[in-house]
Amino acid sequence: MNSADPYHIAFVSCNETHWGGSEELWGAAAAELARRGHRISIAKPNLPKGEPAIRLLHDVKCKLHDLAKFPLLPKVLYGVFSLISRAAGLSWQLARLDLALRFSRPQLVVLSQGGNWDGFLYAGVLRRLGIPYVLICQKATELYWPSDWMRERCKAMYAGAQRAYFVSRHNHRLTEEQMGMPIPNAEVVRNPFLTSWDAPLPWPDIKDGLKLACVGRFFPMEKGQDMLLRVMAMPKWRARAVHVSFFGAGDRAEGLKEMAAFHGLDNVSFPGFIRNVQGGIWAQHHALILPTRAEGLPLVVVETMMAGRVTITTDVAGSAEVCTDGETGFIAAAPTEASIDAAMERAWAARAEWPAIGAAAAASIRTQVPPSPANAFADILMRVIDGRSVPAESSAPIEEFAKAAG
Fold first, then answer.
1. With left for phi above 0 and alpha for psi between -120 and 50, is residue 172 left, alpha or beta?
2. Does the global pTM surpass 0.85?
3. What is the phi-psi region of residue 75: left when phi exceeds 0, alpha when psi lies from -120 to 50, beta otherwise?
4. What integer pLDDT is reported at residue 301 of this predicted model?
5. Helix (H, G, I), strand (E, B), or coil: what is residue 205?
6. What residue ranges define each of the domains in the chain, with the CATH number in brackets?
7. Three-class SS string for 297-312?
8. Which residues pair with 11 in a beta bridge?
């Protein structure tokens, strides 16, 4: 087929939640490829019709398949059915995926994972049908390892993939360790961001004290908001002109709010989810505080640096790959309360330098992330499908990706 001819590319997400940051890359790349004239199919359980990204995919004529939909059965009843029998619900999703792909036969499937091994059952369908596929791996963490019976299937998933795309070098290395095998056909890619590429934001007024934003899903097991609340309960932080706003959503929100009330904290607040992160968060806040325990590369770190703000986060996954401690932010040595407190203390001592640190961060991140990661990823996928993709080194620097993006 001539490279100018349209291709049929299917994007498959195994994420059963309605939408999240792990969906942004494939969603935006799919829309871009559809705008270029290619035939795009989307398959995902629990497609959220009201999500702007899904509306965009519909508007650019992508064919949408909700894998968690049972004909003639109301969605709420299917949800009850899936809760009663998890295996039956997942089996139905796999059967719908098999049926959708068996007759459409795309030239390439992009299988997006919220983690680094959660798509192994979906990959089994692709291997059985003999359809070429690539993987997106949005997170790898020491907290979650596949069980032994899963690992053989996970290893087969990676062995069968034409390419594996990770969002940090850490995630690539850890996945190799968890699989016990090299993954040489891997590249590092970046996720789309919600702040402006053009220029950092003006520095906010500081007359009411320092305003820190903790941005992320309310899921303390991974995001570590519980540790930050304990730190903010220390007498020294209660006494300082520092306020933390917790932005996000999730079914642990009330638990975190009640934990803050239990500690009697008046130096924190919970504004909730805000879609406009540039105007709604970074126009008013001076720094990000992210006490995370598990990540790929936090999108919020990239957005914070783009906005010209200070990052304070843990040395987890890819954050220290883009943020340099003491120069463009502050990195806690570990996801512990003592390490988070120590990083915050160093940041507090250097607070007069925050505008300069934010400016340095804004300049640095623009050398590490392309202006449009989704367009760059669409270009990468076209090179794969045209047979022009060349395997990268295991720990290839991200500058190579930025260079590829033009």
1. alpha
2. yes
3. alpha
4. 97
5. coil
6. 8-193+371-404 (3.40.50.2000), 210-365 (3.40.50.2000)
7. CCHHHHHHHHCCCEEE
8. 42, 110
